[in-house]
Design goal:
Blueprint lengths: L1 H21 L4 E7 L2 E4 L7 E3 L2 E4 L4 E4 L4 E7 L3 E5 L4 E9 L4 E15 L9 E5 L4 E4 L3 E6 L5 E7 L2 E5 L2 E5 L3 E6 L3 E2 L3 E2 L3 H9 L1 E5 L7 E4 L8 E5 L6 E2 L1 E3 L4 E6 L2 E6 L3 E3 L7 E3 L21
Parallel strand pairs: 9-10, 23-27
Antiparallel strand pairs: 1-4, 1-6, 2-3, 2-5, 5-8, 6-7, 7-9, 8-9, 9-12, 10-11, 11-14, 12-13, 13-16, 14-15, 16-17, 16-18, 19-22, 19-26, 20-21, 23-24, 24-25
Length: 299
């Protein structure tokens, strides 16, 4: 009997020493709404979690259409909330309470990250998505990964550094950014929700009422004094990308670049979260246009 107790004790000590040597940390998974599973590292079958569980490096946490969960890495307020239909993996979690390396992947769905502490140069907190990488230093921000891998992020506190391919941008509070695997980072735009982020980058549907058979002049800037680069039929304008600060001028995709037209009868027709507002002196890049001016039709 004493021999078995000694063997068990030695095994526990050996396991503890191995854990201390690897320096890996563990996090607490809390179920907020039923529908949460964990797939342990090097296993094939997910396990349903009803209340709480310990999760670590290599574990994949998933929520179904109604599930919600919170993963707490440190008790001081370093946690991540997983919204429904989310897939999340812990890549690296090592160190101690003062100095640590934390790396995770948001593979699908939406998460909200809270990092109450300011990370020093000896620590790191990195988030990977299919289209961009994010580095946090003490902030609160949300991530969305769509089914096609397009990834978005909006910051509600602090600043987050986003990178994709060879481009990098610091995203401050009240702004967001988006990325695809082919196009890299988008512009950093004002947004406090993903609906606002999409509207700022994709534009909004619009209807224009005109009485006569007219064409709108398209200019490189929202001003009657700006260079005219062509015209557009109002019936062809279905989406506008933004509006100028003073109002009345609308930005549209035009011949490989962007242009501006003036209209007093344009109305946004969809449930748009808000057009992106550009400064009145916004100047488009003429070199992007395929052609400038309108072709001359000979009789």
């Amino acid at each position: 009997m004493k021999r078995w107790i000694l063997i068990i004790t030695l095994c526990l000590i050996s396991g503890l020493n191995m854990a201390q040597t690897s320096n890996e940390l563990a996090a607490v998974l809390e179920v907020l709404e039923p529908g949460v599973t964990v797939q342990r590292v090097n296993t094939n079958n997910p396990i349903a979690v009803n209340v709480e569980a310990i999760v670590g490096v290599g574990d994949v946490i998933r929520t179904d259409a109604s599930g919600r969960a919170r993963i707490t890495f440190f008790a001081d307020g370093t946690d991540t909330e997983l919204l429904p239909n989310t897939e999340y993996r812990i890549e690296t979690f090592e160190g101690n309470d003062d100095e640590f390396r934390l790396s995770v992947s948001v593979l699908a769905g939406q998460t909200v990250q809270r990092l109450s502490r300011i990370i020093d140069t000896n620590s790191s907190y990195d988030i990977h998505t299919p289209a961009m990488q994010l580095a946090a230093r003490g902030t609160t921000f949300a991530i969305r990964v769509e089914n096609n891998g397009r990834s978005g992020m909006i910051v509600s506190e602090g600043t987050v550094t986003a990178s994709a391919d060879e481009s990098t941008a610091d995203v401050p509070v009240g702004f967001g950014v988006r990325a695809t695997s082919r196009e890299g980072l988008s512009d950093v735009v004002p947004a406090t929700s993903f609906e606002e982020l999409d509207a700022a980058l994709d534009g909004c549907q619009i209807a224009i009422n005109v009485i006569d058979d007219v064409r709108f002049n398209v200019r490189v800037s929202p001003s009657l004094e700006a260079q005219r680069v062509g015209t557009v039929d109002p019936a062809e304008v279905e989406v506008v990308i933004g509006v100028n600060q003073s109002g009345g001028w609308y930005r549209i995709p035009f011949r490989g670049g962007y242009g501006w037209f003036l209209s007093s009868t344009a109305e946004v027709t969809s449930n748009c979260a808000g057009l992106r507002v550009f400064p009145d002196d916004q100047l488009e890049d003429i070199s992007l246009y395929d052609t400038i001016g309108d072709p001359i039709e000979l009789p």
